[in-house]
Structures are given as structure tokens and as C-alpha cells.
Amino acid sequence: MPPPSTVVDRAVGCLLGGALGDALGAPVEFQQLDGIRAEHGEQGITEPPPQALLGDATQMTLFTGEGYLSAWTQGNNGGQWRPVETVTAAYRRWLITQQESKPPPGATGLLAEGELYASRAPGLTSLRALGEPELGSPDRPRNSSKGCGGVDRSTPVGFAPSATIAYGLGCRLAALTHGGGGGWASAGTLSLIVHLIAVQGRRLPDAVDQATGRVLRDDGETAGLLAEASTLSRLGASVSHVERLGQGWIGPEALAIGAYCALALPRPEQFPDALRLAANHSGHSDSTAAITGAILGARHGTAALPRQWLSRLELADVIERIGHDIGASCTGEKFNERRYLGLDPPPAP
């Protein structure tokens, strides 16, 4: 296994890399490829805007991380380990940021970050589900959605104590809002890939193959598309391969496109090109690029991330802090646990 400092750096790289992909793809999220090229040139969009704003995927990823760290800290201080409950509470805190214009008096944690009180085209499935008193689980789904809103927020739990926990918890957290098998199984699969490459130090192709075998038991669509992504990656990097995998509006497609781009352009110096490949297609550009960025950030750490891009990124310091603490929780390194004790409880729906 990699040394603790490497795992911590990979956790930071995972969250920052995902945020960079999200920021790169957000301006072209709803455009067809021809329209992207007409607006940005033949190469499409090539770098994030001067103000690289967080998309809804990154916002919810941060709250996933905060909720997970709340559970970890409670368990490490004599309390119960209840990650599903604490992440549920974190998602309801995120919902407050979509309903209010500024932090309430005395807000703590991410609720105190004024920049998060911005609506960045969040998925209706998540908004509706989180407004209900009872959320879903893989065994008791509340809807049949297999949209990508579960997978693109799932990377923090890749730093859970084991591969089994990473996969299972990724599935359960996505199923809170997305009840279709592809909606939650793709999330567990991404969490597992992150764990295998960042924590166990596995090669990315091997990690994708292992994750494909695991998800086959739960969702054939996710497994099939991920296997196809692996095959296509060996043929080289091409937008035609991306669009063969779909548009990324559903979880299995978004995961497959994100994994394909990371597999096709896997070297650290190829990070910008991998994100460009993941963003420039006729589909859910921000989520697919976020997944690619998270995977490569988890594999290579922060050294692979373009400094110029990071300098533009909204709340980069907050993302780095959550990433550091996630990695530290995984390796036993010290971090400020008090940040995650006694977080503001959300109001009941």
C-alpha cells in the first residue's frame, strides 16, 4: 500500500481533480458537440473559465465528504459509526444552500461557506428526493432514477477503510436519492475504483476490471458499459468512442465515459487532455469530466493538476481541506476532528 502521505495527497487530488473537471464541463453541459466547436473552436472548450465555479456535482461531493467525516469523527470519539445517517444530514444541509441566499447566523461547517449558496443546475431527482421525509436504499428505492447525480458525488467514500465498505457505502449513499440500479451501482463502482487506485495502489486498468466484476452482481448495464470503456480505451482516445458509450445523463454512461477518458489518457501529463476529451461531447459534460478528473487525481495526486487551472477554482482551499481530512481519516493521520462534531442539524422536511 502507498505511504500515508501519498494517500492523503491522492485524496486531495481526487477532490480537486473532480472539481476541475466539473468547472471545465459546466459551460458546455447542455450543448451538442457541433455547438461546442462553433462557440469555442475546433478543439472545443480547452480550459476552465477565468472564474472556475463549482458545479452541483462538486457541491454535493463536498457535503458527502463532510457527512462521511462526521460519521468517522463520531466513531473515533466513542460514538456510533453511522455514515448513511450523517451523510443524509449533510445532503439536507446542502439542500438549505439551494433554498436560501446566505448562511444563517451561527452556521458551521460547509453551511458557513457563502459561495455554496448558489444554484448550479442541480438535478431535480436529488432536489425532490431530499425534500421528502424518507429517503431510499438499494433494497427500498423511493424512485426508479438511474441518473448520474449519485455517481458524480461519490468519490469521498472511496477513502473508506476497505474496498468492501467503499463499494457498499457508495451504493447506499447514491440510493438515498437515486433508486434505479444503475443510479446507485455506478456510484459504488466509482467509489471502489477510487479506493483501489488511491488507497491500495492498484493500476487503473486492473482496478476498473475488478470493479466491473463486482458491479456485475448488481447491475449489468453498469458492468457492460464499463467493460466496453476498457476495450475502447485500448484503441486510443477519440470523441467517437466517448459518444459510443452514451451521453452521460445516466449513471452507467457517465461512469463509463469518465473511466474511458482516464484509461485512454492515463499519464499525469495527459490530465488536461483527458478532461478535455471528457467534456467535449454531446452530453453531460460536467459530470463526465468530473469523474475523469477525480479518477486521475486519485491515481496521480495533486502533482498532475494544472496550477493555472487551480488558481481559478472557486473554494479551492475548502476542497483541499475536505480532501486532506478524508485522506487523513483513511490513513490514521491527525486532522482537526472538531470541525465535524456538532454540525448544524437540518430542519425536518
From TrEMBL:
Its cofactor is Mg(2+). Coiled coil: none annotated. Residues 129-153 are annotated as: Disordered. The keyword Nucleotide-binding does not apply. Mg(2+) binds at residues 56, 286-287. Keywords: Hydrolase, Magnesium, Metal-binding. GO terms for molecular function: hydrolase activity; metal ion binding. Binds 2 magnesium ions per subunit. Pfam families: ADP_ribosyl_GH. Belongs to the ADP-ribosylglycohydrolase family. This is ADP-ribosylglycohydrolase. It comes from Saccharopolyspora gloriosae.
